[in-house]
Amino acid sequence: MRSKRPETNFRISHRGLSSPLLRFTDFVSCPLDTSLSGLGRKWTLAIIRDIGLYGVDRFSRLRKSIPDIPPKVLATRLKQLEAQGIVRKSVEKARPPKIVRWSLTEKGLDALRVEMAVAAYGSRWYAGDVFEDGRPRSMREIYNHRGIQLFTKIL
Predict the structure, then answer these.
(1) Can you tell me the distance from the alpha carbon of 30 to that of 35, in angstroms, rounded to the nearest whole number?
(2) Using 50, 70 and 90 to split pLDDT, how confident is the model at 1?
(3) Counting Cβ atoms within 10 Å, is residue 21 exposed (0-12), middle (13-18) or buried (19+)?
(4) What pTM did the predictor assign?
(5) Is 48 exposed, middle or buried (0-12, 13-18, 19+ CB in 10 A)?
(6) Between the CA of residue 129 and those of 2, 114, 123, 138, what are the distances in Å?
(7) How far apart are the first and last CA of the chain?
(8) How far, in Å, CA of 107 to CA of 85, rounded?
(9) Sorting pLDDT into bands at 50, 70 and 90, what band is 135?
(10) CA distance 151 to 77
(11) Can you tell me the distance from the alpha carbon of 41 to that of 153, in angstroms, rounded to the nearest whole number?
(12) In the CATH scheme, what architecture does the domain 28-104 have?
C-alpha cells in the first residue's frame, strides 16, 4: 500500500506549475529554501569559503581569517557543520597538544561550488563593490585551472 504524499505549503503553492528548466517538479519542500536553512546561518559560508578556497584548517587560523566571528560562535558553527556532514574534523594526537584540523567533505565541496558560483555572480554584477577598478570579471578570470575543475565537477 502506498503512503499518501504529504501536503506541504510548497506543494500546495506550486501545484500545477510547470518549468521549462526542471525535469522534476514534485518537491515536498523547496530545495533552495531547504539548502539555505543550513547554509544561511551567519558565518557558515565564510567558514566553508576559508576552509575550501584558502585551506584554512585550524580553529586559530579561522579566527584570524574571519576576525569578527566570536570564538564561541565559530566553535558552534564547526560542530553544526560537522553534524550536517559538511566539514570533517581530524585530530592528530601524535604529540601534545593535540592538533585539530578541519576539511570539507564531499557535501562541503558541493557547498563550496555553490559559493563559487555566487562569487562569480557578484564579481560580474557587483564589480564596483568587489574590485578596486570596478571592472566585472568572468569566472575564468577569478578562478585558476584547479578552481574551474573543482567547480565543473558539480555538472
Answers:
(1) 9
(2) low
(3) exposed
(4) 0.87
(5) buried
(6) 53, 20, 9, 15
(7) 37
(8) 7
(9) very high
(10) 24
(11) 25
(12) Orthogonal Bundle (1.10)
Phi first, then psi: what are they for 58, rounded to 5°? Answer: -120, 150
Rounded Cα gap, residues 56 and 40, in angstroms = 20
Q: Is 54 exposed, middle or buried (0-12, 13-18, 19+ CB in 10 A)?
A: exposed
Question: Which amino acid is present at 113?
Answer: R
List the grid coordinates of 93: 594526537
CA 82 to CA 76: how far, in whole Å? 10
- Give the contacts of 153 (CB within 8 A, at least 6 positions apart): 109, 113
CA angle 129, 132, 136 (to 5 degrees): 65
Tell me the pLDDT tens digit for each residue of 64-104: 999 999 999 999 999 999 999 999 999 988 777 889 999 99
Of 74, 76, 97, 78, nearest to 86 (Cα)? 78
